[in-house]
Write a structure and sequence with these properties.
It is flat, with a radius of gyration of 38 Å. The chain is 49% helix and 0% strand. It is an all-alpha fold.
C-alpha cells in the first residue's frame, strides 16, 4: 500500500509541475515527425546521365626506326654528356633519373613500361630491349581465326 501512495504522490507532483504525461510526450514526437516529412520538398529528378563506355585502350606498339638515336639523346639529356662511350651500360640506380627517363620515353613513344616490369629496368640496355619489342593488339583467338588450322582441329567460334 505504501508503494501505491508513493506512486500517486509522484504523479501528482508531475501533474503540478507541468511534466507531460507519456501520451503527450510521444504524441508530440509523432506530430513533429509528420511536420518534418511534410516540410521536406521533393528533390527535382534530373535526367540520368548517359553512361558511355570509353573505347578500349589500344596497346598496339610498333618501335620506331630511330629508337636507338632517340634513346641516346634522352640519356644524354638526363644523365649529362659525361656518360661513358658505351651509353647502353649506364646504370639506372638513382630512381629520380630512372623515372625522368622512363616518363619522357613513355610520352615520346606512346608506350609506357608497366609497373610489374619497372624493377627489371636496371640499365639503359634493358629499356632498349623493352622498347624494341612490338606489341600486338590482337587476342590469341583472333590470331587463331586468321591462321589455317589442321583438319583434325575444329573450333566453333559461335556457341
Amino acid at each position: 500500500m505504501a508503494a501505491a501512495t508513493g506512486f500517486l504522490r509522484v504523479w501528482r507532483q508531475r501533474l503540478n509541475l507541468g511534466v507531460p504525461a507519456r501520451r503527450d510526450f510521444w504524441g508530440n514526437w509523432r506530430k513533429k515527425q509528420e511536420e518534418l516529412e511534410t516540410i521536406e520538398a521533393p528533390v527535382p529528378v534530373e535526367k540520368e546521365p548517359v553512361l558511355v563506355c570509353p573505347p578500349p585502350r589500344s596497346r598496339k606498339y610498333v618501335p620506331p626506326e630511330d629508337l636507338q638515336s632517340r634513346l641516346k639523346t634522352r640519356v644524354k639529356e638526363i644523365f649529362g654528356s659525361s656518360i661513358s662511350k658505351d651509353w647502353k651500360q649506364v646504370s639506372l640506380g638513382e630512381n629520380r633519373l630512372k623515372y625522368c627517363l622512363l616518363a619522357q620515353l613513355a610520352e615520346d613513344l606512346g608506350h609506357a613500361v608497366p609497373n610489374s616490369r619497372l624493377h627489371q629496368m636496371k640499365y639503359v640496355s634493358d629499356i632498349l630491349a623493352f622498347y624494341s619489342v612490338p606489341v600486338k593488339d590482337v587476342s590469341k583467338f583472333d590470331e587463331m581465326s586468321t591462321q589455317e588450322l589442321p583438319p583434325n582441329l575444329k573450333i566453333r567460334w559461335q556457341y
